[in-house]
């Protein structure tokens, strides 16, 4: 189902989407190539080399090689159980919390293998923010939610100001600025998810991981989140897992297609993947022949 | 849409079933009403005899008197020594049980592996199954001599009693708190970890606040249990009602005291005859005790509701 038709925002991809938040110069055609400042070569932030993940005996990802560019939106799509969430959770080592998970191969963040013995996952996660499938605000005030990351990182200088900045960037400030001390749980689902985004970006991470961030939201809230993601990609490297192909086509610069078995089948500019995929299997998936 | 077509038989056996339903309803209502009825019966008895007592001893003398001497002349029925002694044991045992109980709960819920938890949790709960009189003698025979090495304790003392009551109520705190923490959704933990929080920060800054209403309930239940505890206190703390004042607050711990429940036992088993003032005092203390626990429960409901409003 197409989200835009219901939400009433402009459905045409080239007529463009960032309008709500700020006019960004020279932005996008179908492939959403973002022409910021130096449009030359893009820097790679996250890179994997032969990344394998096992849950017990079961292999969830096989031999993933991917280079995720800085300050772009990289979408990861694929059918259920293809390992797309698993891949996302490898990047900030959230899979460490799953006892049976085992990772092989290399995952380089800014050139450093995050699975090296000397890497502290806590320190890693301070550089890589994450937004989850369903909104999961803490049962605390709106302010305390946004401040949480800064507080655990002992980085509380200008706290008020930075909480405000994060809420503004998450396009939530105008809705909550007069009730920052109220419980975050009183917000609507869409507001809660934007709060979770504010919470994730408050400590100013380098990368923002999003695991189907709009899947629990209604179409209006979904479209707000999508606008927000495009806005955020001007400063952050965004990696978003989605089961919604239109969403990937709308908001991403690059698209990775994982297929069943945990295999990365195709990774290219979004326009290419959706219009002229190299693999028949990817075309079948995208055109809805399976999945 | 056509309406005619087949005639479906939907009569069923509603008539005979409704008789049965009514029978079941009546049975369940009786069960529910019975406990309420008994409760009111008990309150009524307490009130009836307590009022009788208050015709002989003025409520002012009872509630403000600082000397409890129901059986030895000159008779005196000041309940304050008993109340303060009860509060002493309650506060001290809470100081032991609340931190230990919450710490155990955090360990069990957040740190322990499934295997460790499957051994430790039932182990902790066994503590709750030990008869309280055994705790009392454990205090008297082991804890008091151990304390005696370093502190000037007498054979019966408030400190030993408070320690055993504290140990006794740990499982109540840890078990209920652990249940509350375990039911905190993992998505909140993930949010914490995702922001670079450590395990300790997630446990104390995310899980404990989210489980606050359950933890507070466990505190109140444990405190009520400590207030009402009888046997362990009788055995370990003896039966010497001691008014706690500024002058003895430093030594009262090391000496024998008498709580409200303990005084009731003494009155109940002594050879006082039915009609005496001392016998009726039993009901006045009982009513006082009931009022205290009733207020506690009321506070707990209010506190839990407040936390619930904020956290749900």
Supply the CATH class of chain A: Alpha Beta
Total strand segments of chain B: 2
Low-confidence stretches of chain A: 1-40
Coarse shape of chain B: flat
| Quantity of strands of chain A, as a count | 10
Interface with most residues: A-B, 26 and 21 residues
Q: N-to-C terminal Cα separation of chain B, in Å? A: 47 Å
Shape of chain A: globular
N to C succession of SSEs of chain B: HHEEHHHHHHHHHH
CATH topology of the largest domain in chain B: MetI-like fold
Q: For the terminal residues of chain A, how far apart are their CA atoms?
A: 15 Å
Shape-level CATH architecture of chain A: 3-Layer(aba) Sandwich
**Quick one: biggest sheet of chain B?**
2 strands, antiparallel
CATH fold descriptor of chain A:
Rossmann fold
Q: What would you give as the CATH superfamily of chain A?
A: P-loop containing nucleotide triphosphate hydrolases
Which oligomeric form is depicted?
A: heterodimer
Main pleated sheet of chain A:
6 strands, mixed
SS-based class of chain B? mainly alpha
Count, helices of chain A: 11
Structural features, described:
The complex is a heterodimer of chains A (291) and B (312). By secondary structure, chain A is of the alpha/beta class. Chain A has a single domain (43-286), classed as Rossmann fold. Chain A has eleven helices and ten strands. In chain A, α8 links the parallel β7 and β8. Chain A is globular. With 312 residues, chain B is mainly α. Chain B folds into two domains: 14-56; 68-311, MetI-like (MetI-like fold, Orthogonal Bundle), CATH 1.10.3720.10. Chain B contains twelve helices and two strands, in the order ααββαααααααααα. Chain B has helices at residues 14-56, 59-64, 80-111, 114-127, 132-150, 158-182, 186-194, 199-210, 212-228, 231-237, 260-269, 277-311, and strands at 68-69, 76-77. In chain B, strands 1-2 form a two-stranded antiparallel sheet. In chain B, α9 (212-228) packs antiparallel against α12 (277-311). The longest helix of chain B is centred in the first third of the chain and has 43 residues, at 14-56. Classes of the chains: A alpha/beta (291), B mainly alpha (312). At the A-B interface, α3, α4 and α7 of A face α7 and α8 of B.
